[in-house]
Design goal:
The protein has 309 residues and is α+β, with helices and mostly antiparallel strands. 31% of the residues lie in helices and 25% in strands. The strands form two sheets. Strands 1, 2, 3, 4, 5, 6 and 11 form a seven-stranded mixed sheet that branches. The chain has a four-stranded antiparallel sheet with strand order 8-9-7-10, with helices on one face.
Amino acid sequence: MRLTNDFVRVKVPATSANLGPGFDHAGLALGIFDEVEMHAVVGETFVQVMGHGAGKVPEGEDNLIVRSVRKGLEYLDMPQVGLRMVARNRIPHGAGMGSSAAAAVAGLMLARGLVGEQSLSLDEVFQLATDIEGHPDNAAPAVFGGVTFSWMDKSAKTVVRPPREDLGAWVLTPKFEVSTKQARAALPQQVPLEDATFNLSRASLLALILSGQAPLEYLMDATEDRLHQAQRAQAMPSTYDLVQYLRGQGLPAVVSGAGPSVLVFGTLDPQLVEEARAAGWSVKNPGITAVGASMEASREGGESPVERF
């Protein structure tokens, strides 16, 4: 067997998981995309990172995108090759916006492009990305787009719904980062039955609303949580305070993923946006996108334009 293509370009969306009560299973795709271009070459692997993570993330075999390409090629029983890659990262790192899921999915989609899209289904990309991530809540919307509700059986499974046209989404991101490992360390191993029941009722309502089967007027109730947001407050107090402030203003705000970004459904008043930016928050209005990971590939030949800096 041999590679079908030697040039691949992929785009993968940012994602937000949990969405309040949907801990480790609810997610959605945001209209912010990382883009990666890659040539298969003879020789060493080089990665040029532009945007978020530039000068910080590994630029060789330890890069998560590269490791995910390797996993995809290994899964397909294909030979490993040298890679020259440009990663244009628009998804902030350590912000709770699915940057690691995007990197894993990007690498797997790159492997898919090298071999040919018929060789690796999107469901297989989802399975492999879940293996890399450890849970499917970000992997599902990164692959499929839209709003997703995922779970683990013997394999990862998900239901994908198109985003509601009448529901906007804003993201507020601080200048500091919080690792997913750090955020998870703050969670208790056991929770009261009352809190578990509370979240189950809210998560069920949230699924109905985001699927268009229940009215938006219940979204404040549907985004309530007792399992993880308050428990992580010590690791990111300004995030928790902002969520509480926005909810006090009648806005359905939640911690995005493991934080520290804040996801707000609906519309933000321009004055509130100005105040948040003045306080040091980056404010974006990406919306919820139906577009998941995409790929284009070709056999170009020649040398990669990627330069080693």
